[in-house]
């Protein structure tokens, strides 16, 4: 699917109404293979959005919490790293107990009272570095939204005031993107582990 990069020339209101997710892919054999095998993830945001470490941490934390709350994956950790990754199979992050890496490649720029943001997201499996799922999304959102006020305050308290204007646009972009993720199939033991995670 071709991605048409029209959003920079459109107005903020029009962009908010446009479809956020531009493309998505899922392995044809997902139901037979990875649904049972790729459940425990690490989230990495790389490179840093707007070149800011705190905003990178924000993105990874939003993604970790969203996936743990809305999908049956067990996201065990999250991190943000500078520069583009040299190894997009992320073997170095595939430590014991991790079966997949959810990689977020962001682009974010503050504009007026909001932000323009885009992301290329990819889930790779640790055993061979192959892509399981991917999506691309973009849009523009204002930084103020009463529905996100409490969440914004929590992130500011945890990560600093620098992240405040990024919370709403990042949350809306990542929510739409990650909503295209599939759901793995958990065993009873997996379910207990997820409950213990408590996110």
Explain how this protein is built.
The chain has 199 residues and is α/β, with parallel strands linked by helices. The protein has one domain (22-191): Rossmann fold (3-Layer(aba) Sandwich), CATH 3.40.50. It contains six helices and six strands. The protein has helices at residues 12-17, 34-37, 53-70, 149-159, 164-178, 188-197; strands at 21-26, 40-45, 74-80, 100-111, 114-125, 131-142. Helix 3 packs parallel to helix 5. It starts with 11 loop residues before the first helix and ends with a helix. Mean pLDDT is 89; it is low at 1-18.
Secondary-structure blueprint:
Blueprint: H1 12-17, E1 21-26, H2 34-37, E2 40-45, H3 53-70, E3 74-80, E4 100-111, E5 114-125, E6 131-142, H4 149-159, H5 164-178, H6 188-197
Parallel strand pairs: 2-3, 2-4
Antiparallel strand pairs: 1-6, 4-5, 5-6
Helix pairs in contact: 3-5
| Topology, number of strands | 6
CATH structural class: Alpha Beta
Number of helices: 6
CATH level 3 topology: Rossmann fold
Low-confidence spans: 1-18
Measured as a percent range, the helix fraction is 25-40%
The percentage of residues in β strands lies in 25-35%
**End-to-end separation:** 34 Å
Average pLDDT reading: 89
Shape: globular
Output the structural class: alpha/beta
* CATH architectural label: 3-Layer(aba) Sandwich
Q: Largest beta sheet: what is the strand line-up? A: 1-6-5-4-2-3
**Can you tell me the number of structural domains?**
1
Q: Biggest β-sheet, characterized? A: 6 strands, mixed
- Radius of gyration, CA atoms, in whole angstroms: 16 Å
H/E series, N to C? HEHEHEEEEHHH
